[in-house]
Amino acid sequence: MKKQELIDAAIQVIQEDGVHQLSLAKIAEKVGITKPAIFYHFKNKQDLMMALTHFTVGEYEKMIAVEYEKISEDDALRHVHAFLKGNLRQLNDSELIKVHAASMEVLVSNEEATAVWQDVYHRELGKMAPEIGEVRADLLSVALDGMWYGAMCGVWDAKRAEAVILYLEEIINQE
């Protein structure tokens, strides 16, 4: 049994029953172990929820980093383009959207998880603001947050996201 299997099981339980119905017993049942076996990897449910949060943040940041590496070093808006392209790739991944939805449920019910996502938000703004200014960086962030919300609610599709992101790039590229 690996930590990631328990995190994946927690995501499934949250998606099926909601975060308020999440229990270590349900996670254990999902992976076919006893509840005490979970304590080998996590000290409590809160520890597992934070692991889920960090996993989601890691996947999010990894995708943006992959896109960043693809962009030419002489691109004056390298961070901005990586942010937009990385988010678009993630919005095209229905499984990753489900993971983010589970993580957002944890975020709403957990101040420590909220702090983790706030840190991500500030880091992304800190990278983009020098390239395009704070207001434009906020605009991109809010627009992408709306797309994520729509994707998690099942009312946003990748084709629409791509069109909006292309339009946002046009706006940002205008001086």
From TrEMBL:
This is TetR family transcriptional regulator. Gene3D superfamilies: Tetracycline Repressor, domain 2. Pfam families: TetR_C_28 (PF17937), TetR_N (PF00440). GO terms for molecular function: DNA-binding transcription factor activity; transcription cis-regulatory region binding. It comes from the Bacteria. PANTHER family: HTH-TYPE TRANSCRIPTIONAL REGULATOR BETI (PTHR30055:SF234), HTH-TYPE TRANSCRIPTIONAL REGULATOR RUTR (PTHR30055). PROSITE patterns: HTH_TETR_1, HTH_TETR_2. Residues 1-60 form the HTH tetR-type domain. Keywords: DNA-binding, Transcription, Transcription regulation. InterPro entries: DNA-bd_HTH_TetR-type_CS, Homeodomain-like_sf, HTH-type_TetR-like_transc_reg, HTH_TetR, TetR_CgmR_C. It comes from Listeria rocourtiae. Residues 23-42 bind DNA.
